[in-house]
Amino acid sequence: MALIVQKFGGSSVANAERVMNVARRIIDTYRQGNQVVVVLSAQGDTTDELIEKAMEISDKPSKREMDMLLSTGEQISIALMAMAIEKLGCKAVSLTGQQAGIYTNSFHTHARIERIDVKRVRDELAAGRIVLVAGFQGVNENGDITTLGRGGSDTTAVALAAALNADLCEIYTDVDGIYTADPRIVPNARKLKDISYDEMLELASLGARVMHNRSVELAMKYNVNLVVRSSLNGHEGTLIKEEAEMEKTMIKGVAYDKDIARISILSVRDVPGIAFKIFKLLADADINVDIIIQSIGRGDTKDISFTIARSQLTEAVDLINKNLDYIGAEGVNFAHDVAKVSIVGAGMANHPGVAAAMFEALAKEDINIHMISTSEIKISCLIHKDETEKAVKAIHEQFGLGEAGEE
Amino acid sequence: MALIVQKFGGSSVANAERVMNVARRIIDTYRQGNQVVVVLSAQGDTTDELIEKAMEISDKPSKREMDMLLSTGEQISIALMAMAIEKLGCKAVSLTGQQAGIYTNSFHTHARIERIDVKRVRDELAAGRIVLVAGFQGVNENGDITTLGRGGSDTTAVALAAALNADLCEIYTDVDGIYTADPRIVPNARKLKDISYDEMLELASLGARVMHNRSVELAMKYNVNLVVRSSLNGHEGTLIKEEAEMEKTMIKGVAYDKDIARISILSVRDVPGIAFKIFKLLADADINVDIIIQSIGRGDTKDISFTIARSQLTEAVDLINKNLDYIGAEGVNFAHDVAKVSIVGAGMANHPGVAAAMFEALAKEDINIHMISTSEIKISCLIHKDETEKAVKAIHEQFGLGEAGEE
Lengths: 407, 407
Hints:
With 407 residues, chain A is of the alpha/beta class. The first copy, chain A, has helices at 16-31, 46-57, 63-87, 119-126, 152-163, 197-205, 213-221, 274-284, 313-322, 324-327, 353-364, 388-398; strands at 3-8, 35-40, 92-95, 102-104, 113-116, 130-134, 137-139, 145-147, 168-173, 194-196, 226-230, 238-241, 253-269, 289-294, 301-309, 331-344, 371-375, 378-384. Chain A has an 8-stranded mixed beta sheet, sandwiched between helices. In chain A, strands 14-15-13-16-18-17 form a 6-stranded antiparallel beta sheet. At the A-B interface, helix 1, helix 2 and helix 3 of A face helix 1, helix 2 and helix 3 of B.
């Protein structure tokens, strides 16, 4: 008998019909002889509706009260799912984050799980019940309700799987699994059978929006076997695990991100401490920096460029302009019409030809590269936004990642 | 510094504008130097919408899961109210039933409060916060969420007032207070300045739908000073307390109830144990009996009549018909076109003229009396439903209860 944790997102439980469909799928897993713990998100637009209610009252509601408000969404989902499962003849019980023993720190709206007391969940499983846990929420040591922020329900599922030492954690979503590239851009993109945590982390941070990195990191830390699969069909999905089969497919996939902007700070003095000044300023303003490139100093100055989320561009440029003297820079320029395309794969660093092949693919399409950044398992190029699709297709083709060109 | 518990119903917090209005009223009380605990119901139709969601999934959802579902309604209200109060510049904190320490037994959907651990509420008050408590809900010893059933939020308010030894418990509703008769029927009905718990209990059970009896009983048991007043204006309301001013106004008011039906069981044998058989049958079927009249036996048979809620008439008649042999009765008849009019007032039993005056009022209007039932502090008459308004007006006039005829 295996213990399986399943997570279903908000669109999977958006109405009564979908709730019943998911209930049948859960029961299938249960009737195959497994113990089943299910983590649910709030139904469809519920969270947005609750946020709107709050905004009608205050443009800056306290975070504690937002958590009190928003946590009701998941609570509604678990109650309805328990009813659906019972209606179909199986025993079920719904548990809030608190009842499931999910203890977090007190950072309301973006709390971190500190520990999970699994006694209640274990007792309910032992009693033959399917256990439905409200995702996205926990409780701090004062008994106050907290929420986990972005990717919260995935995090709940992975954390529960880790704490319960589950055999498998299945993340049901609206895609079939992890692909070698966005299938909307590359029609012959291939679904990966498996991928390593590291590679998944890079793909996610590079724009593949299947799972939030936080839950992948947690899975890696506790060695939880994760499967990403579709709630709409019975397809197999992609297994995310410690080590994918070594060296079988070096390049795992092509990712892109259009929601970024590039900022360059010009002619800063080439002395120690400048980068610290710049990025401390940005960090204090809660602006997340992605790629950073620093040119080699020429004379006694150098340029520093970096990318950030496009939504933070104005704020970041204002901040830097105000602090040009403090930083000791001549000026700042920026571009909002950029995109990042990346390839990801373990062992890339040991194959010098990989980077060259990627640049070749872009060159053949006459795509100019603005910035380059590499790591152990990824290479990213900043290009003009309008050329994103062309670039992704070219790179995908170059590495023979498609169905026809399987290695 | 007084400690005041206030309770606002669902219509008082139905939308953002009303939430802000109630927030201002709460802050007024706080700024007058009081500690304030506020109990809230779910917004407007929220509870009905949640019930509908459940019904789309199961026609008989488990009670535990219904409680899990419905308790979210009050949780939304308290979070929004906390935001509103904070927006207006005061400190506030919302607490679920569990966080407020409200422990109940495990009878889901109609749980009873067993104890309240007020530590958290006291701590929050001491920190200068206005405390918003979700009405209608608590938690059992397993940490499962329970709801209190009908009149639940009033019960939460009174129980909290008792546990906190509050100076006052204000129930805000859509009426100004307790009137000598329904103002829609008797335009010159007078608002009572005060009324005793006993009298309020009789008025409520006789059809005055201002407060649920359960919360009045609780207030009486713990000697909580209750005030019923309107959330729509600043009027004074009616104080419900241990002893109203003795003998000032003997008759407190006229009440009526049209949602009843009369059943008569004919020619049962005049031997011991018959009434037990009948009312045990009804109790086992969860049918609440109100007035019971048993005629004096003539020969070796007697008739037994009683009233019940009209919604249970069919069920009750079917049940009795099936058990005629067991009961030993000849037949059953019933009437659904009846209503009950009653007068309530302490000391009535010592004034023999009161009953006569009530019957005189009905006689003058040519209203036939089907059944009569009396107690220490009330007299009820069963009449034809169509004559209810006429009867209430006549009785109100007879006892000079109106504004003009104040004693």
